[in-house]
Write a structure and sequence with these properties.
By secondary structure, this protein is an alpha/beta fold. The chain has a single domain, classed as Alpha-Beta Barrel (TIM Barrel). About 40% of the residues lie in helices and about 15% in strands. Helix 7 links the parallel strand 6 and strand 7. The mean pLDDT is about 95.
């Protein structure tokens, strides 16, 4: 299965390493691909020509660019009741989809919305139904472009107090009929409530991409963000069961490690090339 690493552990949130450096490093680690991030690894206003240069370089190195990600949606939400904010999120997503198309990526990671962003007091608390209605409206506006560009909008299960279970996700995703809106399933993010293999069994072909991380909910971790540690093998995820479940539903998409060591808070101290290298080795074991 295709094994990749997300940019943030290698280049940080400030874009300290170029996409070319990341791709070259990934080749040396024996990975199949990388996940570039819009807003740091590559800028929001990147041109088609620049994307083509990155894609050509990745092709020369034998490194895939099957998914891209972003942290944009924590500041501007597709599920916002503020029409100006929602419009800005839609405009960004249109550009984001084009960037993916220029890079040759299959899927873009999108956060559909949040009722509350616990780590950002400046963000408003929004009613659940409002997030459902507004994010649905936004995604219906974007669905045609995703079809035209042949790029999946892959919605990630995140800690936004919205869509808590795989059954909720199934109802939500089944509103969209094109097949271009599915799930970016994060196996660690769901552990607070549900085993990851249960998500796979219930959502099946709706899963477009998979993020790999781990989480511990014991007293030491405190049941919070600190549970996302520095060793992808240390936690509640049973990777054998998860991989078996993915195989059962016929999943053959990317497995991308998203190693953000929140256990280090309040100082995340990334980029961390040593942690990136260790995670690449762990991915080969998984």
């Amino acid at each position: 299965m295709y094994k990749a690493l997300n940019y943030w552990v290698f280049g940080g949130f400030g874009g300290e390493k170029s996409p070319f450096e990341f791709i070259e490093w990934a080749e040396k680690q024996g990975l199949d691909g990388v996940e570039l991030t819009v807003g740091d690894a590559i800028k929001e206003d990147i041109s088609k020509e620049e994307c083509r240069r990155i894609a050509d370089f990745a092709g020369e190195k034998g490194i895939g660019l099957r998914t891209i990600a972003t942290g944009f949606y924590w500041g501007k939400s597709l599920g916002s009741p503020d029409e100006g904010e929602r419009s800005a999120a839609i405009d960004f997503t249109r550009k984001y989809l084009h960037v993916a198309s220029w890079l040759g990526a299959e899927s873009v990671l999108v956060v559909p919305g949040a009722t509350r962003v616990a780590w950002d007091a400046s963000r408003p608390v929004v009613p659940y139904q409002t997030v459902w209605d507004q994010s649905t409206k936004s995604l219906l506006e974007l669905e045609r472009l995703a079809e035209e560009l042949k790029t999946d909008i892959a919605l990630e299960n995140v800690w936004g107090r919205f869509l808590f279970s795989p059954v909720e996700w199934r109802f939500y995703l089944d509103q969209f009929k094109s097949g271009k809106i599915g799930m970016y399933f994060d196996v660690g993010n769901c552990c607070l409530y549900v085993r990851p293999q249960d998500y796979v069994e219930i959502l099946g072909s709706r899963i477009k991409a998979v993020h790999v991380k781990n989480w511990r909910g014991d007293a030491l971790a405190g049941g919070n963000l600190h549970g996302f540690g520095e060793d992808i093998m240390d936690g509640e995820v049973d990777f054998k069961e998860v991989c078996n479940a993915l195989s059962e539903v016929g999943y053959n998409g990317p497995l991308t490690a998203e190693m953000i060591p929140f256990s280090r808070l309040p100082d995340l101290a990334i980029p961390d090339i040593g942690l990136a290298t260790a995670t690449a080795e762990r991915m080969k074991l998984i």
